[in-house]
């Protein structure tokens, strides 16, 4: 039985696209993306889901989302650019079954308010020479759950937050997330 995956999005969905492509190319073979949920009706990520023939869902609120996840018998929730904070009840309902991709090497540049471009502004501000992306389990502490995988990316002299974000996405996020989703899906499918 394949692990049934729901991907939660709020924006452009480039990480979702990487997952869709990885499913097509066979990198993700132990799981199947059966639902894309968003808190934003106009998220372009929903368009990507539609183009891939995957059911899209716009949540009214967390209860509405939980009902849909139960209805679809979801085993694994992947947060890919999802910007809503999940309640402790929600997280407890899916203990060790929610993973998130964060665009830095946790524990650097993470936690409350550190998301999107802000993360790369913080890295440039601090002057680190290496950054990257982290996939981790979600617990009640923002970006605090057990780390699953990380991938480093060099910072270049003339980097701006935008050029750095792009490189971290291309060279880290879009590679790391599919690998992590396959690893966790395989463990779930094996009943671990
Ligand atoms: C990006 O900042 C990415 O680093 C983070 O979520 C944001 C949007 O990603 N994971 P996406 O294009 O919507 O996947």
Overall pLDDT metric: 97
Secondary structure category: alpha/beta
What top-tier CATH class fits best?
Alpha Beta
CA radius of gyration: 16 Å
CATH architecture descriptor name: 3-Layer(aba) Sandwich
Tally of strands: 7
Please give the share of residues in helix. 25-40%
Strand content: 15-25%
Number of helices: 6
Bound molecules: 5-O-phosphono-beta-D-ribofuranosylamine
Order of helices and strands: EHEHEHEHEHEEH
The CATH superfamily turns out to be Formyl transferase, N-terminal domain
Describe it for me?
- This protein is α/β, with parallel strands linked by helices.
- It has a single domain, classed as 3-Layer(aba) Sandwich (Rossmann fold), CATH 3.40.50.170.
- Helix content is 39%, strand content 22%.
- The chain contains six helices and seven strands.
- Strands 3-2-1-4-5-6-7 form a seven-stranded mixed beta sheet, with helices on both faces.
- Helix 1 (14-25) crosses helix 6 (161-189) and helix 5 (117-126) crosses helix 6 (161-189).
- The protein is globular.
- The model has no long low-confidence stretch (mean pLDDT 97).
- Bound molecules: 5-O-phosphono-beta-D-ribofuranosylamine.
- 5-O-phosphono-beta-D-ribofuranosylamine (GRF) binds next to helix 1 and helix 6.
What is the topological layout?
Blueprint: E1 3-9, H1 14-25, E2 31-38, H2 44-51, E3 56-58, H3 62-71, E4 76-79, H4 88-93, E5 98-102, H5 117-126, E6 130-137, E7 147-154, H6 161-189
Parallel strand pairs: 1-2, 1-4, 2-3, 4-5
Antiparallel strand pairs: 5-6, 6-7
Helix pairs in contact: 1-6, 5-6
Bound molecules: 5-O-phosphono-beta-D-ribofuranosylamine.
């Amino acid at each position: 039985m394949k692990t049934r995956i729901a991907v939660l999005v709020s924006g452009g969905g480039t990480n979702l696209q990487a997952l869709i492509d990885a499913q097509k190319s066979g990198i993700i073979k132990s799981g199947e993306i059966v639902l894309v949920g968003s808190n934003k009706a106009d998220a372009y990520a929903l368009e990507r889901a539609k183009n891939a023939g995957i059911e899209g869902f716009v949540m009214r609120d967390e209860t509405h989302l939980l009902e849909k996840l139960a209805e679809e018998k979801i085993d694994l929730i992947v947060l890919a650019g999802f910007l809503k904070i999940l309640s402790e009840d929600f997280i407890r309902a899916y203990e060790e079954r929610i993973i998130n991709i964060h665009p830095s090497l946790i524990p650097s540049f993470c936690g409350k308010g550190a998301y999107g471009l802000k993360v790369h502004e913080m890295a440039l501000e601090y002057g680190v020479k290496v950054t990257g992306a982290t996939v981790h389990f979600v617990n009640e502490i923002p970006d605090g759950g057990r780390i699953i995988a990380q991938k480093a990316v060099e910072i270049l002299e003339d980097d701006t937050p935008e050029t750095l974000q792009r490189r971290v996405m291309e060279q880290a996020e879009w590679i790391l997330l599919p690998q992590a989703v396959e690893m966790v899906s395989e463990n779930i499918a094996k009943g671990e």
